[in-house]
Amino acid sequence: MAKEIDFRPRKAFGQNFVHDANTVRRIVSASGIHRNDHVLEVGPGLGSLTLPLLDRGARVTAVEIDPVLAKQLPATIADHSHSEINRLTVINQDILTLMPSDLTEQPTALVANLPYNVAVPALLHLLAEFPSIRTVMVMVQAEVAERLAAEPGGKDYGVPSAKVRFYGNVRRHGMVSPTVFWPIPRVYSGLVRIDRYETSPWPTDAEFRDEVFQLIDIGFAQRRKTSRNAFADWAGSGNESAERLLAASIDPSRRGETLGIADFVRLLRRAKEAEGEAAAAIEAAQH
């Protein structure tokens, strides 16, 4: 296919295409996609994953940043099946700029082969902007997969691990050898599945999310600090930080790298409650 259209992968787009049929079947099977799904596929490339997604009866919106590939994809699908082309929409756009208004129908699932340099920003952007996405199956560099699925306290646990769990449950689905790609990358890839919470345990509005994410950033800014010291500036002082942490049932001597998403959410909620109580006390004293 690449030879037919005289295509050469571009490093700027981090292009590595899966050419192994068994790997493609494995990805589609693990994604759990069915005929009622509307799949948002990121980086369809030459269409090796697009075709089996369509074969499952799903509707697919493929977002491709490369104009050459975006133009070629409909022709590739049409050559395979004239009926399936009716369930495909191709958008030539940077995924980091994609918004719900760009689509005529909101997606229920995300399947993506994400390049290393944009994997985490793209994933967090899509989870935030498309709450209709219930299931995610992404292929990323193995190191990124380990970070996304890492548990609190582990060596790979960090900001991405905590933030992605704001949206749902995360689990690994194994490694992918470099040999199934063209061109062959220098590193292994990993599959990660995310299932959005059926009912979120906390508010999901942008304001609340941003405040939680701010706490996550603070908690990991200096990983070796105790939580008491890490959150001192945010709370106003070390003593106030300790009080807020204790109110959230968090030992102030714990390090940020041991806190799970529920801890960060609880810390924010208790801080907001304390601020509300303080404001009410001031107002009462003035009357």
From TrEMBL:
InterPro entries: KsgA/Erm (IPR001737), rRNA_Ade_diMease-like_C (IPR023165), rRNA_Ade_Mease_Trfase_CS (IPR020596), rRNA_Ade_methylase_Trfase_N (IPR020598), rRNA_adenine_dimethylase (IPR011530), SAM-dependent_MTases_sf (IPR029063). S-adenosyl-L-methionine binds at residues 16, 18, 43, 64, 94, 113. Gene3D superfamilies: Ribosomal RNA adenine dimethylase-like, domain 2, Vaccinia Virus protein VP39. One of its GO terms (molecular function) is 16S rRNA (adenine(1518)-N(6)/adenine(1519)-N(6))-dimethyltransferase activity. Residues 23-198 form the Ribosomal RNA adenine methylase transferase N-terminal domain. HAMAP family: 16SrRNA_methyltr_A. It catalyses: adenosine(1518)/adenosine(1519) in 16S rRNA + 4 S-adenosyl-L-methionine = N(6)-dimethyladenosine(1518)/N(6)-dimethyladenosine(1519) in 16S rRNA + 4 S-adenosyl-L-homocysteine + 4 H(+). It comes from Mycolicibacterium fortuitum subsp. acetamidolyticum. PANTHER family: DIMETHYLADENOSINE TRANSFERASE, DIMETHYLADENOSINE TRANSFERASE-RELATED. NCBIfam families: ksgA (TIGR00755). Its EC number is 2.1.1.182. It holds the Pfam family RrnaAD. GO terms for cellular component: cytosol. Specifically dimethylates two adjacent adenosines (A1518 and A1519) in the loop of a conserved hairpin near the 3'-end of 16S rRNA in the 30S particle. May play a critical role in biogenesis of 30S subunits. Belongs to the class I-like SAM-binding methyltransferase superfamily. rRNA adenine N(6)-methyltransferase family. RsmA subfamily. Keywords: Cytoplasm, Methyltransferase, RNA-binding, rRNA processing, S-adenosyl-L-methionine, Transferase. It is an enzyme of class 2 (transferase). It comes from the Bacteria. This is Ribosomal RNA small subunit methyltransferase A. It is found in: Cytoplasm. Its main location: cytoplasm.
